[in-house]
Amino acid sequence: MRSPLETSMSTLTSGPLDEPPAPSEMHAAPHTAGDAARLDMSGSLYMRLVDASSMLAFFVFEYLLALEVWRGLVGLGAEAQAAWLVPLAFTAGYVTADFASGMFHFLADNYGSTRKPFVGPVFIRPFREHHIDPLAITRHDFLEVNGANCAISLPIVITTYLLLPVGANLWTMFLGAYVGLFLFGIFLTNQFHSWAHVADPPRLIRALQRSGLILGPEHHQRHHTPPFNTYYCITSGWLNPLLARTRFFERIYEPLRRVLEPVFGAADEVGDTDHKGHPRR
Questions:
Q1: What is the pTM of this model?
Q2: How many CB atoms lie within 10 A of CB 79?
Q3: Is residue 214 scored above 60 in pLDDT?
Q4: Residue 108 contacts by C-beta under 8 Å, 6 or more apart in sequence?
Q5: Res. 265: pLDDT tops 80
């Protein structure tokens, strides 16, 4: 017998690769006022300190990594190579950021308890809150929206800066630029996500959304339509049609559940349903 996730994902991904018509509105998962209050950590001193310190450290190491790339180019007399190296690294990093945003979004939606120390409140809780109050992200300030992504990026940027010999050759310079730009794409992801929920974003942002360069509300509506289990990528959303058509998340759901639930706990339930709208077992 197929699980609700398998059945719904098959329905959503059985058509052609082209995107289906967008739903007319975004929906919240069934929940109670108590659920919303429990997940709302706006103004929490603990979260403010985590977000602020993570963002400060992230930008310090992003700057240091970018400086190493530039010094490497100058040291090798390869400044002219920046004309192809930086755009290529940016494109590769941006596409990778879109995939990473979808993967992390999928994990945070489907596995782990919000009560798990550190991981729960910092990384899982914002996604659970978002499904019961999709507009909450628009009421959060810049620090709260983007702090968690800085925290998750820190180990990568620090390791790259300390261990990668960026100036050794063009390949290591490309890798350093790629990592830095990939992580900058991750940093921008939640801001793009927030703008996709704003009713009247700035004119420039709306133009970028309509161009498809960043996540747009019409595209993102598919994720906020029951059963809330597709179109997880939230940087640009470019990879969503392909991942849906190939049933990527459906295929990895059960193997990952067996590995992650013993470590991080089962996904919290919301009201009389789980956060996907499935009845409690």
A1: 0.79
A2: 10
A3: yes
A4: 123, 124, 126, 127, 128
A5: yes
